[in-house]
Amino acid sequence: MTQFNNVTVIKQANVYDGGKVTSRVIQFADGSRKTLGIMLPGEYTFDTAAAELMEIIAGELEVQLPDTELWQAIKGGESFNVPANAIFKLKIHTLVDYCCSYFD
């Protein structure tokens, strides 16, 4: 899917790590939400409340998911899932354009 129709966009950005990670929330009529964002090169640690699907639109990164020491390489066109109430780490190698879906 290359576009979302009939959505509400929250204008204020979510800004993390001094502006190196930003996103905007889009809300759908059924109450579901996603964020669209950009991550600049660097290393980041995030925590989740809800389960998430991270779709990487463009860029290259490595992810370390909960309960593993392994780093998995991810590039544009690929995705990964993160469980609810978890901590995961990212190593961003090139600018990453992403879409995150939440499953409450």
Structure description:
It catalyses: adenosine + phosphate = alpha-D-ribose 1-phosphate + adenine; xanthosine + phosphate = alpha-D-ribose 1-phosphate + xanthine; uridine + phosphate = alpha-D-ribose 1-phosphate + uracil; cytidine + phosphate = cytosine + alpha-D-ribose 1-phosphate. Catalyzes the phosphorolysis of diverse nucleosides, yielding D-ribose 1-phosphate and the respective free bases. Can use uridine, adenosine, guanosine, cytidine, thymidine, inosine and xanthosine as substrates. Also catalyzes the reverse reactions. This is Pyrimidine/purine nucleoside phosphorylase. It comes from Oceanisphaera ostreae. This protein is mainly beta. The chain has a single domain (7-103), classed as Jelly Rolls (Sandwich), CATH 2.60.120.10. The protein is 0% helix and 60% strand. The chain has strands spanning 7-9, 14-16, 21-28, 33-39, 42-47, 51-58, 60-64, 72-75, 79-82, 87-92, 96-103. The strands form two sheets. Strands 1, 2, 3, 4, 6, 9 and 11 form a seven-stranded antiparallel sheet that branches. It has a four-stranded antiparallel sheet with strand order 5-10-7-8, with no helix packed on it. The model has no long low-confidence stretch (mean pLDDT 96).
Average residue pLDDT: 96
Give the helix tally. Answer: 0
| Major beta-sheet overview | 7 strands, antiparallel
Highest CATH level, the class: Mainly Beta
Q: For the terminal residues, how far apart are their CA atoms? A: 21 Å
Order of helices and strands: EEEEEEEEEEE
| CATH architecture assignment | Sandwich
* Proportion of beta-strand residues: over 45%
